[in-house]
Amino acid sequence: MNNTIRVRFAPSPTGELHLGGARTALFNYLFAKQNDGKFYLRIEDTDEARSREEYVDQICDSLRWLGLNWDGPLLFQSRRKDEYRAAVKKLLSEEKAYRCFCTKEELSEERKSAESKGGFLGYSGKCLQLTKSEIKGKLNSAEPFCVRLKVAKSGKILFEDEVYGSIEVNNKEIDDFIIQRTDGFPTYNFVVVVDDSEMEITHVIRGEDHLTNTSKQIKVYEALERNVPIFAHLPMILGGDGKRLSKRHGAVGVQTYRERGFLSEALVNFLALLGWNPGDEREIFSLEELTQNFSLSRIVKKAAVFDDKKFEWMSGQHVMKTPANELLERIRKLDPEWKKSVIPDYLLAIVEVQQKRLKTLVDLMTQSDYFFDGPNDYDEKTARKRWKDESINALMEDFLDSLRTVEEWSEEQLENRLKKFAEERELGLGKIIHPTRLALTGVPNGPSLFLLMEILGEEICFQRIQTALKKLPLESREVI
Ligand code: GLU
């Protein structure tokens, strides 16, 4: 074995990639890349009833979208049954494992009687007492059996978790657990070890929900006489209410965030900070910066909270710093039909202004309608507040006249003109900005008004202000 760092992400394809899984994949990826190591993807599909191929595709697709490309081919546990059987056979022949013929009923009797005597410490090891000829007899009469690992009853398992520190488990807390079920399928704690050791995995980085499995897995490593990897368990992710993040909290699938138009960079950045502390005040990181800065030693034990508001903010930061043409390309990927017939330069200009204030690609698409079409109606609350009576019509008529003499229809000149116009009338700028914005867009918020006017062009601006003069204020229209 050489010194290359080798890690893996090992999802079970029983559902789409959720945020917790994506965070595990990300941390493995970062650790591998940072150390010039290898990042493998292993599909844990031994649960044939629940595993689905479409989930494998979805998981891979989500990982690629996040930019977490893996090394080498995918590994499927379902294709490795022979290897698992061989490993079980080896342990049986070395008498490190044994066949257990106890029926369900016998096992539940055993549990009940142990509980009544003060505590159940797991399987009693009854079938260890079977003689060779008894075993032969049972095999000949095709009695079903599972295979259990023989676990020493004294001593301790000690291991150093990179996040949780020293962990000590008494051997007597671990019973002779099953490594191959009655139906012939090996169990999770067994196959994980066979795979991790054959893949020469150096670091197992996974969710803290697996921490309790680790002592059992170490027992399997010892029995198979394989090197025990270094373990790093990642803290839980909680929803805003302090409970473990789950569907109850809304979207937990990576694809949903993708469909909602979040940038993958934003999700990667946010996931990285769920449990990893950069050690300073920085919050915005690209995947590359994360790769440079990440370290296992800065993973915290404390559960991390997925705060939607914070994520939206972070998403806005990434939208802001992505070049507009790149954003446009991403929009095209999300919805190839979006404003297909509009000239790209115009779209680019729109994206450039909107990216300063919007947080997702979907926001960019849905909150930019006024760049293409005049407002068909006006936000009622805004109209009643900003264009409350006919006096605004008189004011806006004048402003329209004043706009007609602007020499160059540019952001700068438009701003100057509006300021001068307001000054002459001793009005606050808002008195003109708000009704103008309402006339042009129908909504209360948007990008800088002057830039908006420049992009729309003078003809459209004149038309829209004229239309508003006819339709506003709302009260008078209703009275008629
Ligand atoms: N297949 C397990 C899961 O999806 C991961 C096991 C591991 O990483 O060891 O939770």
What does this structure look like?
The chain is mostly helical and 480 residues long. It contains 21 helices and twelve strands. Helix 6 (188-198) packs across helix 7 (211-224), helix 16 runs antiparallel to helix 20 and helix 17 packs across helix 19 (449-456). The longest helix is centred in the first third of the chain and has 16 residues, at 19-34. It binds glutamic acid. The site of glutamic acid has 7 residues, from loops. Glutamic acid binds at residues 10-12, 44, 192, 206, 210.
Please give the structural blueprint.
Layout: E1 6-9, H1 19-34, E2 38-43, H2 53-66, E3 75-76, H3 81-93, E4 97-100, H4 104-116, H5 132-140, E5 146-149, E6 156-161, E7 165-170, E8 178-180, H6 188-198, E9 203-207, H7 211-224, E10 230-234, E11 237-238, H8 254-259, H9 264-272, H10 287-293, E12 304-305, H11 308-321, H12 324-334, H13 344-354, H14 361-366, H15 380-386, H16 390-404, H17 411-424, H18 430-441, H19 449-456, H20 458-471, H21 474-479
Parallel strand pairs: 1-2, 2-3, 9-10, 11-12
Antiparallel strand pairs: 4-5, 5-8, 6-7
The structure holds glutamic acid.
